Amino acid sequence: MPNEHILIVEDEEHLAMGIKYNLVAEGYRVTAVGDGPSALKALTELRGDVDLVVLDLMLPGMSGYAVCEALRGFDREIPVLILSARTLAEDRTRGFDVGANQYMTKPFDLDEFLSRVRNLLSFFRRRAEDHAHRPNPVTTFEFANAKVNFETFEVAVGGESVRMTQLELALLRYFMENEGRVIPRRELLENVWGMPGNVNSRAPDQFIRRLRKLFEPDPAAPRHFLTIRDAGYRFVAAGEEPV
Length: 243
Prior knowledge:
Layout: E1 5-9, H1 13-25, E2 29-33, H2 36-45, E3 52-55, H3 64-74, E4 80-84, H4 89-97, E5 102-105, H5 110-133, E6 140-143, E7 146-149, E8 154-157, E9 160-162, H6 166-177, H7 185-193, H8 203-215, E10 225-228, E11 232-235
Parallel strand pairs: 1-2, 1-3, 3-4, 4-5
Antiparallel strand pairs: 6-7, 7-8, 8-9, 10-11
Helix pairs in contact: 2-3, 6-7, 6-8
């Protein structure tokens, strides 16, 4: 049985208690709070003992966006699953921008929610173990006119500093580690997002568009982040001439 600790940040008490009941039934330890300041207080006091945050966006005292952004100021590794009634594309985009790993909308299917929790926890546990056993992990990477430091999260393009989210950096690193290989969307969902590969999500497309906007001289004619029709994506550090 799992023993991971999950923090629920949800101001609707009946919903928070329902989620907590089902997570406890699955064997997780659960703490629930009902507002943004309490969430940050709990994350500070329980630092190192929270394995996953389930975060609502519309919270009293401080929005979920602000909570996630503040969390990323002192912890870039803990996975965050946003659970919100906000359904617009810009809400998802903003959630990813402040550092969330996954986004689910209310009302939600309980089995899917529990599956996402299991996958996120398993994914981040495996990633931590892989990093611990990797003797000489690559911390810096240069291609075209870009310089990336995965350790300090510093990125420069043409000498100008640019801001990237944790997920954007994780996707870039996965491309770097698999340069030249065609990577199916399913593989990206499983190994970058920690989601089941059969989930219907366009997140990889959205994030690859953002990488192109950051790094490609002409995002409409990419040379580094290529879409391979009906197969997936391929990263070419040296660049390929557009077809």
